[in-house]
Amino acid sequence: MCLAPQPSAQSLRLIILLILVMGVAPSPALTAGCPARCVCDDQLVVQCAGQHLTTFPTEMPLSTRQLIISNNRIIELPPLQLNYLSDLVYLDCSNNSLTEISESTFGNLRKLAYLDLSFNTLTRIEDRTFGPLSSLVMLRMTDNPGLSDIHPDGFAENSALQVLDVSRNNLTVLNISSLIGLPTLRSVGLSGNPWSCDCDNEDLYAVFLIVTISRLDLTCSERHRLSFSQQLRNSLRSRCHQGLGSWDYLFFVAIGFIIFAAGTVSAWAIGVVMVLYERYVKKKSEQMDPEDEVEQGAGPGTGSGGRHDANPHAPPPPPSGCASEPTELQNL
Length: 332
Hints:
InterPro entries: KCNMA1_auxiliary, Leu-rich_rpt, Leu-rich_rpt_typical-subtyp, LRR_dom_sf, LRRNT. It is a single-pass membrane protein. Residues 1-26 form the signal peptide. There is one protein chain. The chain starts with 8 loop residues before the first helix and ends with a helix. The chain is of the alpha/beta class. The strands form two sheets. It has a nine-stranded mixed β-sheet with strand order 1-2-3-4-5-7-9-10-11, with no helix packed on it. Strands 6-8 form a two-stranded parallel ribbon. The chain is elongated and about 120 Å long. It has six helices and eleven strands. The protein has a domain at 32-245: Leucine-rich repeat, LRR (right-handed beta-alpha superhelix) (Alpha-Beta Horseshoe), CATH 3.80.10.10.
């Protein structure tokens, strides 16, 4: 009689573990399906382009690596839903109706390397808008007709940024202090903006010495139809750092004369005050001298009413009846 082999302890543990895994219902968040009207593939790519979406797609797989929501009518990127996609490296939001990006929109997307916000209605970029995107390599923000203000520190924390394109917006001035500090920046797109040719934009031309400016058809606004060429840079340099002219010298001469005149008048006034004060003191002393002489004339030993002995401690004189007694005693 043959006995069936008994299962080993290791086999029993594997069977029990399999039963537990099959019996426990998986979390809905981990098994979230593909969003409606979107296509998801095994490469962790979610494709929702051109689906007439007005809101950010829901039920997004948390493991999504690439998300494409371009060519829709989405007006807002909800931070609560977007920040669950912590593995996201590619985000295309171009050609939508985004009006602003809050500081918390990209708060947890630290792996994001590519971001496209072109063809939207953005108006301003704050200093912390892209702050959390420490791995951002390429940023495209072209064709936002209302985008006229980018904070000077808008890219200060994007140390990995290599390509920045802000072409065809409404920028007139761009403070590049934050761009100069980026160690890997190699290309900047600036064309199609109504740049001002004032001295406020002089530092913008330092970009030419640091990075490659793509699309070199850069021009100033209509009142200054000049390209961003060496001629323009030389013109601004001479206009913003020009030497002293004839009017400048005349101004300094006038200022010197005014200072000299003010000093002379002040010295004369002080001299007059000192002379008047000296005369006043002298007159005051002359008025006090006669009073001193009167007081001295009425002093000790003068006048009948004020007669006194020279020695106040001497004994009083003897009475008049006894004045001859000492003489008689002396004769005896």
